[in-house]
């Protein structure tokens, strides 16, 4: 399967996920909040479907839309979000993102538990995690707003006709 075919498959699956959002039988706010939560958790490393389901249930949000948000962001945006998170966290802390990225690559290449617990590890991980938090919150809010507008627009058009 070529790259263009894979891209078409990803696009068609994403389109189907989004189309299913406005078919869910729940309030637009709960659906959109669930979707935003799913996007937030899908972007954050280590959090995913299980945490998304648990939090959506606990917060009484729509679980199906939380799963859709998590599925849309969990894997295929990972590299772009990783770079964006490094740049964002580095800018907030005031360090060079290229330096953090180079240190990250070196840590991965020469991995040892001793290095993980060393102080230099936290110099690397702190801007990355801070960047992930900022990017996750921003993407979650944008996803909530877009989902809410989409759902309200589709339901308005459906009721109008």
Average pLDDT metric: 81
Q: What is the share of helical residues? A: over 70%
Content of β-strand = under 5%
End-to-end Cα distance: 42 Å
The outline comes out as elongated
Helix-strand topology string: HHHHHHHH
Q: Could you name the ranges where pLDDT drops below 50 across 5 or more consecutive residues?
A: none
Task: Map the helices and strands.
Layout: H1 3-21, H2 28-43, H3 49-58, H4 63-73, H5 78-93, H6 97-109, H7 113-116, H8 119-160
Helix pairs in contact: 1-4, 2-3, 2-4, 2-8, 3-4, 5-6, 5-8, 6-8
What does the model show?
- This protein is an all-alpha fold and 161 residues long.
- It has one domain.
- It has helices at 3-21, 28-43, 49-58, 63-73, 78-93, 97-109, 113-116, 119-160.
- Helix 6 (97-109) crosses helix 8.
- The longest helix is centred in the C-terminal third of the chain and has 42 residues, at 119-160.
